[in-house]
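Explain this one:

_____
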Amino acid sequence: MRLNKLSAYALNALWLLNPFLLLIALFNEKLKLGIYLEWLGKMHPLFLHFPIVLGTLIGIYYLVDKKNSVDEKNVHAILVGNAFLSSMVAILGIFLSKQDSYDEQMIFLHQWGGVAIAFISWALIYLQKSQIFKSKYNYRVQFSIVYLLVIIIFTHKGAQLTHGANVINFPQKEVANELQAVKAVTDSNATLYVKAVAPILQQKCVGCHGADKVKGELLLNTPANILKGGKDGNILSFDKDKESMLFERIHLDITHKKHMPPEGKTQLTTEEVAILSRWIKAGGDFKVKMRELAKTDSLFLLANKYTPVDNTKVIGKTGLPDLKEYNSSYCTVNYLFNGSDAIEVNFFQRNFYSQAVLKKLENVKDQIIRLNMQSMPLTSEDINIISQFNNVENINLNYTSLDIKAIEPLKQLKKLKYLSICGIKFSEAELNAFLKGATFSKINVWSNVNNQAQLEKLAAQYPKIKFTIGDNLENELFKINVPTIDQDSSIITRFLDVKIKHLLNGVTIRYTTDGTDPDSTNSPIYKNTLRLTRNTNLKVKVFKPGWLSSDIVQRNFYKSEIHPDSIYLVSSPDKKYLGDGAKTLVDLELGGSNFTNKKWLGYKDTTMKFVVDFKQPQLLHQAFLNSLIDVGGYVFPIVSIAVEGSDDGVKYKKISETKFPTITQKDVMRDIKTFTYVFPNNTIYKHYRFTVLNLKKLPVWHPGKGTPAWIFIDELFLN
């Protein structure tokens, strides 16, 4: 009796659950969830196996039971329970899909597959009652085959979402061999990719984007696969307005759903983020060799000293003490990454070295994993302090004015894995004596006294130690990598808050807003959020004592103070570049550098004309039109902007016209530029008609000479 009641409740509930399921599936993109529904979504993986198993057993039952031998009441209860669970799991799945970034096509198939399973299971309750279904075994067989296929195909899509597109593929031996080769090559003949980029990707990314799992159709295990990109296209390419996808994902906040690696996975260290960032900014070259890079190049310096950490799952820690007291202008002390209590220490600028700073680190000696003291004027007393850092794994002592006998105490460090001693004085016999009994597995060594052949001969005697022989990192000046201007929008309405970020602690970020280049003394220092209230050309540069300053990063921000009550196009743009009609000019969304992305209005054979209307007369001072220039694509600058005013919208009076200089063959060939029109004083009308003229004949030096040039406009700003 109790089972019958439960079945009745569940059957009634299905008339609420399934319409609700269909509704949220249809409007999934607009669905906004509260914290409790988001939490419920996490129950999807917990319950999904019940309807899968139950549905599969029901399908098999209809295949093997020709005579309907099971009691109909029991079958009814099972079918109702299966339908109820199927609907609940499908609903929870949609809730879960809002909390993470998944392959859009795959999530679409899995979602609607889940909806199909729920509705088929619901329909089966009533189908079972029909006489023709009970009496015709062939009908039951056909139904069960379809039902089983739907379950198998669409639940497999769910497995691909969590375990990758190649979840059931055979392992790819050729990829494994290539990755093994990546581990083996570490000398100066190696490419930058093999030396540092590939080990980072292998440890932190290939788990989700490798042979065993292919999320987002993206493989990161070989150069060819990286260049191929994934579902969303190339991950390395970037342009003036948008960073590359890989750069963007590794710099997102760890709590962001698109941050890579995802929260809960082993995170990139500060050093690894810097290496990937500099490599991407330098063009993502897979073929450039370490020895081809300038030894003062920050990318060379970072990659050359890089040693992969153990690829073990790290549980993030909270409440870790602040390390500010250990930091100075000439020493940075940081946790390896968010949630790690392991510490990395870097000393800079030998003229300002103080042993007291090193000695102070004894307070955190058990947490120090990496220590870089390159070019510091060290003594035996300094080495005695370092020898107390019991958990240190990586030490750089290049060009520290020591001899090899002075560093003998470091051999007692049981966890030391990598030691770099380029420039340290030793004879062949002294180095041989130092290596005996050493527990570290890698050493970077070079001496002016011993040639490479002698060192290679000695290295052969110690097969368990991997030698890198080369005169590396002799220049102590690092070039700081560029900062990040952290603001998605480039349009200022009332005001816009802009944050500037940098990977390295202890830097001074300076900026200008007047078009001049920042310098290290007079330019304002960035401290907190920068609030912009007018058209701004923001330029940012980073400085740090003992470092080469970064390159300048700049970005334009546009003030849009006055918004028209209506706007319409008098002349139609080319049918291939319609944008979103007149709305394109006032949607506060810039089109980027790609004029084919349907965010630009394109004119060529006709002259651009549009009207801006206000309900009441509006005083205007300035108008700005944002325009794309791509000379190779026959897209030239605006020739002129003429404006007329009207009070009735019928009769217009010319206000003025602003003409702009033409470009020559030597000018910039590709750019995004703002063209400014200044209204005469006391210009006040209800209606303004703009005429934006394109170049009607391309110059003789252009391949399209004599034909009209394109203009592309994506936004109008009024102030």
Notes: DSSP finds 18 helices and 28 strands in the chain. The two ends are 75 Å apart (CA to CA). The longest strand covers residues 608-619. Residues 2-163 form one domain.
